[in-house]
Specification:
Distance between the termini: 50 Å
Order of helices and strands: HHHHH
Strand content: under 5%
Number of helices: 5
Radius of gyration: 17 Å
Shape: elongated
Helix content: over 70%
Structural class: mainly alpha
Number of strands: 0
């Protein structure tokens, strides 16, 4: 496998956007698995809702690629693959009564990774003056933060 050398801030930005696209696609797949694993209708619905938001986030990233005139593609995202593997491992080991808690905890970890990824994209695009791009990335970040808060509140509720 040929390793691409990133030589400029633009190369790095393009690579990070490609990784973000993979991250969101991986998240969409993981949400389907978490929805299947969840036991309660409320938590299944929470994952369905977030899957819809994730599709919007993918569309926003597609728009970012167009605005920046970058070829839309993906790049490896070992972090999201690892988060998904960890979730699957925990779910496999968990008694049915723990499935909701494990699913929420796993999703929460993924959200925090996504929040960090979007923050890392917003800083350079702001510095480069790409205001439309920043708006799209900020919309994704806002959804991720909101979802993280929802997951945390739901987790607190089921553990109360």
């Amino acid at each position: 496998m040929v390793q691409q050398t990133l030589k400029s801030p633009t190369d790095l930005l393009h690579f990070q956007l490609r990784t973000a696209m993979t991250m969101e696609n991986d998240s969409l797949a993981a949400l389907g698995e978490l929805q299947k694993a969840a036991k309660t209708a409320e938590i299944k619905q929470l994952f369905r809702h977030h899957a819809g938001e994730t599709k919007e986030q993918i569309a926003n990233l597609q728009q970012v690629f167009r605005l920046l005139e970058f070829k839309e593609s993906t790049a490896p995202s070992p972090s999201t693959k690892g988060i998904s593997k960890q979730a699957a491992s925990l779910l496999e080991r968990s008694a049915p009564k723990l499935r909701d808690q494990v699913a929420l905890t796993s999703a929460l970890g993924n959200e925090h990774y996504e929040i960090s990824a979007y923050q890392s994209l917003i800083v350079p695009t702001t510095a480069m003056g790409f205001s439309e791009v920043v708006s799209l990335l900020q919309a994704n970040l806002d959804q991720e933060v909101h979802t993280s808060e929802e997951l945390q509140k739901t987790l607190q509720k089921i553990l109360a």
